Fold these 3 entries.
Entry 1:
Amino acid sequence: AQSVTQPDIHITVSEGASLELRCNYSYGATPYLFWYVQSPGQGLQLLLKYFSGDTLVQGIKGFEAEFKRSQSSFNLRKPSVHWSDAAEYFCAVMYNNNDMRFGAGTRLTVKP
Amino acid sequence: GAVVSQHPSWVICKSGTSVKIECRSLDFQATTMFWYRQFPKQSLMLMATSNEGSKATYEQGVEKDKFLINHASLTLSTLTVTSAHPEDSSFYICSATGQEYEQYFGPGTRLTVT
């Protein structure tokens, strides 16, 4: 069955520290991959996406993600977290061109 | 570009009444729009997919007679929650497909049924 897994429900990091949010997917072929951020009570903002090509993708706000086919992973990283990065992060996978499924989300708390 | 709006941003209605939520693509034509539901501290769950001019495709477990979706034009889709009950209270988010199959999301509508 097709699925998206974000193993970490909640992560706390100190401001200025590095961040990695994990995402694994289950699918027979390479899907389209996305990371979104959601602030409380808000819609989703696209951070970055991967369709093909270079497996290291740069996004907005200093985020990047790396697609690893062998691990079926698409982990999100940021070298230095800012307090404004505190939010909910969703990994999403698009199957069959339009069918998008979301992971359960990872809530990021940033300590001062 | 690629902006999706939703109206209203929040709505309170009484149990038994119906409420309509609009989703508009402001600067592009969206042949496909999606409706999601999000419970507090949970992920987005796809409710239905709508294509302009045709009936919506509902996900398993979503009552199509309760959640009426109309996609009358390439820029507008509506979700009507009929005979709303408190358990329908949720955050409803729409999205529209642009280029490269990317979905652009609206800001969401918070529905509270009293």
Note: Residues 19 and 85 of chain B are 11 Å apart (CA to CA).
Entry 2:
Amino acid sequence: QSVLTQPPSASGTPGQRVTISCSGSSSNIGSNYVYWYQQLPGTAPKLLIYRNNQRPSGVPDRFSGSKSGTSASLAISGLRSEDEADYYCAAWDDSLSAVVFGGGTKLTVL
Amino acid sequence: QLQLQESGPGLVKPSETLSLTCTVSGGSISSSSYYWGWIRQPPGKGLEWIGSIYYSGSTYYNPSLKSRVTISVDTSKNQFSLKLSSVTAADTAVYYCARQGRNTAMVSYWGQGTLVTVSS
């Protein structure tokens, strides 16, 4: 049971826009930045979005993040086959003094 | 370019202690503002944060694992280590070492990961 809640799966066709939600509480998302990670099959996760909506150098602007209250979302526009991966949200939890992750969302490009 | 590399046994017996080391290259582990941590991923499952350490020795641990985890740092070798005691099959996972921001979930550098299997 993850502290942050994500849908287990999402899907879309090439060119579509998909969103992945991440729900938390006042002690994590509600009071700290949200981060998103992309994990391609067989590889280590990669930082995709930091501080709610910032993209590291090299991450296409097709990826965007947002946060409102105790929830956050990752949006991927112009979906491409190479976007097929697992996506995780994460935040610091003040009550636990720990990093908490969502359970992950498997994105399938149909 | 900063690189992290995990090392340690790939097979551990139940009830024993899992020990892994992460060697950092391309940068100093004594850099301010960063913590050095461990994250694991059981086969086919999601990510679980284990804990992290500052070069001074200050640590944070996942409350669910705290009683069994020790993370230590050796600045002279630019390494940090994980010990997880009393392991069971549920501790079988890919273990990643990582560079983490202080009091944030920002992990900007990851090791490639190492699979540790708990089995007799």
Note: The radius of gyration of chain A is 13 Å.
Entry 3:
Amino acid sequence: RKEVEQDPGPFNVPEGATVAFNCTYSNSASQSFFWYRQDCRKEPKLLMSVYSSGNEDGRFTAQLNRASQYISLLIRDSKLSDSATYLCVVKTSYDKVIFGPGTSLSVIP
Amino acid sequence: DTGVSQDPRHKITKRGQNVTFRCDPISEHNRLYWYRQTLGQGPEFLTYFQNEAQLEKSRLLSDRFSAERPKGSFSTLEIQRTEQGDSAMYLCASSPRLAGAETQYFGPGTRLLVL
């Protein structure tokens, strides 16, 4: 089993739609969680950290369920500019950073 | 530009040759990571440094791969006797060692093609 798994995708959604990405991780000792965004042929960039209480940044909401070892990202009112690959990232207690395989999103006009 | 830089941006080599990549992190960052990314996959962790100390190496990092960060600033990643399977994007990232400072800042990557 991979240490971090994500929805395989791709997701093709119309502008204005709400889309949710799921991620699971296998190491129960993992301490920090993030969502990164990667545009085609570009480097990954931090989208948001994920906190146990859940957190929101504009149209983006991240949730963490430690008991289920599950992380989610919700994007509301999708924009064309949201088209990218979304990477779930988990950091272990030893500072090892593990990226999921990514889920591709295409927002269609 | 004070971001992470990598050199070269592209490298084409023949199988069996050695290649070396360089990463210059953001100057005040003492953590430096190397990743490998292939098409359709997320970045795979290779190794990381805190200052000049190499603290962890992935089992993906075979004995043909070696990384150094001799003065705790820039880092090099060398691949000896390259194989076609080494073709990938090699990404470097840095982060500060501060409480709560979790963000990794990535460089643009070095794209390697082994013929």
Note: Chain B has no helices and eleven strands.
